[in-house]
Amino acid sequence: MKDKFTVWFWIFAIGFCLLWALLPTFLQPAYRPDVVELQIICKEWVLSTTKHPMLPAWILEVVNLVTRDSFGAPFIASQLCALLTLWGVWSFAKRTLSPNLALLGTLAIFPYWFFTIESIKFNQNIALIGFWTLAISWLFQAIQTNRRRDWIIVGIALGFAFHAKYSTVFLVVTILLYMTICSFPRQRWKGIGPYLTTAVAFLIFLPQLIWLYQNDFICFHYAETGMSPRKGVTPQLIDFLRCPLFFLVNQLLYIALPVLILTPLFGRKWKTRQAESSLQEEARKYLAFMIGVPLGLHLLICLVGRVQLTSDYGAVFWPLFGIFLLLAFQTNLTPQTEKRSFHLFFFAELLMVTIMLFQSVISPYLLGTARRFHFPMQALGAAADQIWDEHSTGPCPFVTGDWWIAGNAAITMKDRPRVLFYWGGMESRNTPPTGLWASDADVNEKGGLVFWALHQKGVTEVSDENVPEYVLRRFPKARVQPKPILLPYKTNAQIPPLQLGIAIVPPP
């Protein structure tokens, strides 16, 4: 019976991931900003930028190489991470629940926002969810079995999680608290297992640690700016409450669909479940700890620091939430309730597909504006190639300026030039480039293209007032092109075309 349910899990999981890899490939002609950033970075094979560690970029570049730079590569990479997460959830579920409930509890998380709509934005969060969930799933097994193989898997998962995002430290703190406070896992400190996990995770993370040391822990400065309270503003009581409430409400929205799918199993009155075994009792406490402690730590940061964290920080908390509900509350598993849960599962999937269709096709007509994924990426690359070829016989070495425009150009230009980009913009005089592999001096020495947006409507000629101050300050030899680039957005809705200015930094 268990083999049958495992087969069904893999059928559902692979079918789901194929669907959500194909949908954006055919519906969205351009990428979201996070994907553009990764496409810029992945060719450089760097350990980190001034913002984040770069495991997602490595994953994306491997998929690019396998698929020969296909447009759908980021969506495939995202769904590979989703598949890793779902496998981690299923592995935990089948060890602690009956096969029927394990499958339903795993299916409940399929319509999760970060596996569906948000999966088109492949980034650090998407990659982190997989390794975070895998670490939690295998740590529970390692504590139960005390096998060295399981402890090593936990170390591998934690090591790669740190390469995805440094917020993995919240998971490490949670694990340490759990293995210190709770009696049964505390016994494992007497064996080699936890120390094996620590050694493996540390060795995997060591190159990142060396990079941080060599670059003055610059990533933490970026994190600090994103988590600093508003300066010069006297805090009011509402400020202390607003930030954690905002974060918490968004987290509740993330778990709404999993709760809806499982509701038929619990009935109208949810009652606490009596654990059928000590394993289930321990699993319930374990998941409550692994979900509750990171959530509590983030709410504490919001409360004490008056920091309005983006809801994405909570993306890693919830993949195992459906399993926790099934362990915590009584279930009435009958053919009727099981059928209703499956119906709600398909309804939730259809809802996510409908939202995707609305965003991609309908929203420009209703909103009167284009979304990021309607950007004319291919047309921009062709226009940039034509302009460069008119002024030089060699390949374009660099593109720079507005990072979003430059990144889209670089992705589709024939020579895939390198990108010098500043996440916060090039106006600042003291901020280092986000990617430390290039500088203004490299562009001035080797040449390239500088892009910026023209915000005035109906520009027919680029004058001095249309050129940002930083262009000639950073690139004194830049030749501003008099004619703007006009590109229609990739939608049939009546939207004014994109207007861009461009300057050429001549090669030697």
Description:
This protein is mostly helical and about 500 residues long. The chain has 2 domains: about 1-225 and about 250-360, no CATH class; about 375-505, no CATH class. Helix content is about 60%, strand content about 5%. Strands 1, 2, 3, 4, 5 and 6 form a 6-stranded mixed sheet that branches. Helix 18 links the parallel strand 1 (about 400) and strand 2 (about 420). Mean pLDDT is about 90; it is low at about 230-235.
State the end-to-end CA separation.
70 Å
**Low-confidence runs (pLDDT<50, min 5 residues)?**
228-233
Query: What would you call the shape?
Result: globular
- Give the ordered list of helices and strands: HHHHHHHHHHHHHHHHHEHEHEHEEE
**Secondary structural class:** mainly alpha
Q: What integer value in Å does the Rg equal?
A: 25 Å
Mean of all residue-level pLDDT scores: 91
What is the total tally of β strands?
6
Percent helix, as a range, is 55-70%
- The figure for the number of domains is 2
Major sheet description: 6 strands, mixed
Number of helices: 20
Strand content: under 5%
Set out the fold topology.
Layout: H1 2-27, H2 33-42, H3 55-67, H4 73-96, H5 99-107, H6 124-145, H7 148-164, H8 169-181, H9 183-186, H10 193-214, H11 218-226, H12 237-254, H13 256-266, H14 278-305, H15 321-328, H16 335-367, H17 377-391, E1 398-401, H18 403-412, E2 418-419, H19 440-446, E3 448-453, H20 469-474, E4 479-480, E5 485-487, E6 498-505
Parallel strand pairs: 1-2, 1-3
Antiparallel strand pairs: 3-6, 4-6, 5-6
